[in-house]
Fold this protein.
Amino acid sequence: MALERLLQKIESLLPEIDKENLKVSKASIGWHLEHSLLILNASLKGLTMTNPDNYKPKFSIKKFIFLNFGLIPRGKIKSPKQFIPLETSTKESIEKLFNLAKQRLETVKNLPSKSYITHPFLGDLDKKTALKFLGLHTNHHLKIIDDILKS
């Protein structure tokens, strides 16, 4: 599963959490890791809390473009407050979120395919689509981290 590979990448970046490059991002590597893990954990938990019978897919041009091209413009979309790390990220806070994400990812594997989350811009995403979204979102932040490390 792609998310498992992305989680391994996140774990490998733990020693780099204090690095930043303001030319690339206003946030540190730790912030990007923690933000990604907050989204992962909330979405994976959300998949376990919805009733698959209530899943209502709708076509959205935003969803189509994002899921097929993976386009997330940098610095243009504001994250909801609950997914913004409150304090300076620490290795311990990120490790805690990382371990929770690994557990939740295992739990999600056994859920029905019509388990879903409702994304504020993309609408209802079934399990397969939600996992694809999470992979694209996490990869977006890992690309930013790669650019921070290159500079």
About this structure: The mean pLDDT is 92. The CA atoms of residues 143 and 149 lie 10 Å apart. Strands lie at 116-119, 123-126.
